[in-house]
Amino acid sequence: MFETGFGILFALGAFFFALWIFILLPAGMASKRGRTAFGWVLLSLLFSPILACLLLLLLGNNPNGRRDY
After folding, report:
1. Close Cβ partners of 34 (under 8 Å, ≥ 6 residues apart)
2. What pTM was computed for the model?
3. To 5 degrees, how large is the angle CA 6–CA 12–CA 13?
4. CA 39 → CA 2, 4, 35, distances in Å?
5. Model pLDDT for residues 38-62, shown as the tens digit of each residue
6. CA-CA 20 to 30 A from 59: which of 16, 41, 49, 51?
7. Left, alpha or beta for 48 (phi > 0: left; psi -120 to 50: alpha)?
């Protein structure tokens, strides 16, 4: 019984970690830099979240982008 509960807990933790890596991290980084979050999340899902985050860091802030706080 303990092993089943631990397995479910581990699976939920892995799911939320993957959700954070693939969706929330690039979306947050993009919105802070004045870029569209949807496009960067799509790039993250299609290629790699590491690539998306590195590109966001290299490109920096969008000089023409809106910033909503």
Report:
1. 61, 62, 64, 65, 66, 67
2. 0.73
3. 85
4. 42, 38, 9
5. 999 999 999 999 999 999 999 999 8
6. 16
7. beta
